[in-house]
Amino acid sequence: MRFSIRASGINKMVNQTPVTPVLPPSPRRGMHLLGLLWGDKFAFFSAVFLIVIIVFAVIGPSLLGDTATKLNLRARNFPPFTLERGWMYILGADALGRSMIARLIVASQNTMAIAASAVLFSMLVGGTLGLISGFSRGWVGGFIMRIADVIMSFPSLLIAVVILYMFEPSVMNLVFVLGITRMPIYMRTARAEVLEIRERLFVSAAHVMGASTTRIIVRHITPLILPTLTTIATLDFAFVMLGESALSFLGIGIQPPEITWGLMVAQGRNYLQSAWWLAFLPGLFIMCSTLSLNLLSGWVRIALDPVQRWRLEIAGDGHE
Amino acid sequence: MKYLASCLLGTALAISAITPAMAAGKTVTVVLSEEPDVIDPCEATRSNVGRIVKQNIVETLIEVDPKDGSIKPRLATAWKQTDKLTWQFTLREGVKFHDGSDFNAATAVIAINRNLNPTQDCEIRLKFFGNIKVSPKAIGDYTLEVKTDTTQPILPALMSVMVMSGPKMQPTKGSRQPVGTGPYEFVSWNPGQDVVLKRFDGYWGAKPEAEGARYIWRSESAVRAAMIKANEADIAPNIALQDATDKALDFSYFNSETSRLRIDMSQPPLDDIRVRKAMNYAIDLDALRGSIFSEGVMPMTQIVVPSINGHNPSLKPWPYDPAKARALLAEAKADGVKVDTEILMRGRLNMYPNATEAMEAMHAMLSDVGFNVKLKMVEVASWVESYTRPFAEDRGPVLQQGQHDNNSGDAVFSVYFKYACEGPQSTTCDKQVDDGIAAASAATGDERRKLWQEVMRRLHEDIVPDVQMFHMVGFSRINARLDFTPSISMNSELQIAQVKFK
Amino acid sequence: MHKYLTKRALHSFLSLAGLLVLVFFLARLTGDPGNLYLPIDATLEARQEFTEKHGLNDPIYVQFGRYVVDLAHGDLGESIRKQRPAIDVVLEAIPVTLSLAAVAMIIALLSSIVIGSLAAYRPGGVFDRVASIASLAGASAPDFWVAISAILLFSVTLGWLPTSGMGGPLTWIMPIAILIIRPFGLLVQVVRGSMITVLSSAYVKTARAKGVRERAVIFIHALRNAMLPVITVAGDQAAGIANGAVIVETIFGWPGIGKLMIDSIIQRDFAVIQTSILVTAIVILSINIAVDIAYAILDPRIRHK
Lengths: 320, 502, 305
Prior knowledge:
The structure holds three protein chains of three kinds.
Chain A lengths: L1 H13 L12 H13 L1 H29 L30 H36 L3 H14 L3 H11 L4 H11 L1 H15 L3 H8 L4 H37 L11 H8 L8 H27 L6 H4 L7
Chain B lengths: L1 H16 L9 E6 L14 H7 L5 E2 L1 E3 L6 E3 L2 E8 L2 E6 L13 H11 L7 H6 L5 E7 L2 E6 L6 H4 L4 E2 L19 E7 L3 E6 L12 E6 L3 H9 L5 E5 L10 E14 L9 H10 L2 H4 L9 E2 L22 H13 L8 E6 L6 H14 L4 E6 L1 H8 L10 E8 L6 H8 L11 H12 L2 H19 L2 E13 L3 E2 L16 E2 L1
Chain C lengths: L1 H27 L4 H5 L6 H10 L6 H13 L13 H36 L4 H14 L3 H15 L12 H30 L2 H8 L4 H31 L1 H7 L4 H11 L2 H29 L1 H5 L1
Helix pairs in contact in C: 1-13, 5-6, 5-8, 5-10, 5-13, 6-8, 7-8, 7-11, 8-10, 10-13, 11-12, 12-13
């Protein structure tokens, strides 16, 4: 039971509201939300930024893949913000004279794919394990929580080295490493939520009416814990991107010729004195994406919460 | 709250009163790239151990002159070959170890046996005496006889790695307290923090200027460079090219390393010489030099640097000629060579500064002339496994990034390992080369040099076992308060006694 | 409480046992330490001799059996690299990391409580906006990048602080500051969120209606209730630092457990890998238990259960 106590604390932090069923979308409601979004400029620009990044991630590599890997040693460390070498060099060039803007755009695909898949992986696997653990009253539940303990005290670096040594340092394997290390938080949260929810009246009612456990889990409980897990996931997005970058710093992350923002920062750090933009620009992109994601998710949390929506409706002035 | 405030204020005052350790006085502070695991004299050939102990704490019988690779006396004053398998060394008299013991033939025998003790994994034994059985014997107080099981015409050069450790050092286990005869004696090692040496008053030679030395370590090159600027350290033996931005403080020196891509000649299409030549024509070394590599690197023509006995100065580096590369490829293709086969370029992370970028650049250059190459950077353990025998059966065509260090004076330490049919890291096999190696290894003097030079020519012109890159330079940053210029030996030693203050 | 602690200790012991088994086998999947330790020119015989001597030739279950027996005798093995007992090496490193983690967490916790509460006082206000964005931005910057930039700025250009090294108070400033950034950013968010919820709850409104002064409302009534999630996250973050101050330790040259762990993993120094993971796991499990106890102290309902 004690784990439930701790993890329900996490719920409180990420999910400041009682769980509310999501309303069915309607056109009018959508327009209203858009209006609210426009009202909150921070959230609005976050949304725009994220959409741009997603577009880059989808079409970038097919459009600019060649430019991003084209060597030009004469343009090595070419400084940004001049048009001397054309628009492709507006953000400068890296240590091999490759266009920074093209690389940033192409890297967005791997970066986003890794972060999103790792977060999704840990949320799905961790969440499911947590659900099972919460629902099984016997030793299985305890066993799953011991796994969470083990993962938490296990250095992700060792997993990374094992995988790098045994397999190739590919995108998939990196997702696996990052996903596993972030799993415990979902396991604990899901379990805590289940322990609390299953005591509620409607679950007992469903039981009495003869619904199977699987059905109760899938139809009644999962929808209730999903919002909490999703909120943790948005916070985790930043963690995963930075974790990926830290692995690159230690030399055990993704390997060239693949590129991610994290790898670009790690490689660019060697040039902090002579060509600051090599590390700064990808770092800025990581920062802006995580910032946008958090601002937007904070906004969504409030916008979907009837108790707090008034804060948005009186546009930014929270004074009571 | 007031209490807290006064606490904070108190702390702030305390902080401002304490200043960080500054490089001052006549103690030299050296910042290495990593902490040594043990400070045992028998590991003196490992660079971060050697920079602390070699010729500072422990000395060798014979020293290699970094300028031209010739040998000169240190603890031995004279030597001669008495028969095919025996050398005799006359030792310096009046030399004392730091613990008061006398240095003589008997203690030299103990030291040699300690270095070659098979229960220890000492690098001196494993790297230089793996195939030689050495039996030292004292035949007088100051006369040492060394017998070997095979002819060793260059045993004196080999003795330049044989350090003389104190006779009371425990023989079977790695030491944390080295004792020797050198100008500095070991004081302390605070694990994780520093190693401290002080000047040895009973030293047999000239009294050095520096009173002591302190070694610390930081793994980031940028931090090491910053420490010299901030006056926290005096010598950073190696910093990365991009951190060597200050002409007044940064010295470049040939570090005796030679970098190349090893071509696995047993695997088609790399068994075709036109393919191997095309690879060399495809690499624009001039573009790499001064960008990813330092301005000071020298295009290589052979595996050893010019100061090594056996270097052949008449060989010319491959010119950059992409048209010729394409033509050679087309020619090979016309003869049925499968030049479109995917070739793996296996690089090693952090092998040298910018190693990854270098591989990326060469990948692009090879692709440009039409090779189907794939780049893979691996971590050091996987790299070692694929670099040394036994090689995997199904390895396929591979170009493997390599860097070789030879500062021991003679080509024998390089050529056999890299190019002999049985060489532990060789993917080449040529009868003429093998015969040449055998002949040169047994010869001495001018004949030896000529024989090596012929082997080098054969490799460079007729075999082409490498995509040739550079003889590398290293960068040291030296505090402006010192008068000291690093040399080619910086990779394995750093003689504090040579440091002068301005 | 006693019964509970005993149960927790037992559970932790099981987790540790599982962890050790996992580490033992995973570490051995990463290859032969001899390849890395011996010079590249070492002969094949020398390599075989090396693996033989260190017992790496035996079947893995034999190696594991030996490890378990030694462990039962309190012997954690010897470092191949450093040629001394692994536990000595680890015990030298762990205090460094623990002191870093303790100082960093105390400062991060105190400052984030103050700033988070102030931000929650007027959600959406200017202070809230600035605090939220600044703390989030800090938390999403790559720490090695911030660290190297800070050295170049504060030590080289301005000359205010020593570049690196562990020593007097001045040497602590930059490593601690870098370590704080991420927990601080997260904790500010958590404190703020938690405080907003508590402040809008019924009993705080009652307290206000009773005429309790505003500041007292925030710092006494509300904070106590808002602390639970804060402690959870703080515990998580502390565990993270205990396990992963590796970047700060690497850059600033602090001989802590994170640096030791990555070095031993890269060098395949199995005894040190196993021992350092064991010791950090004990620390992390203790933090977990401490967090639960803090919960019990803060929340009377839990205490009475």
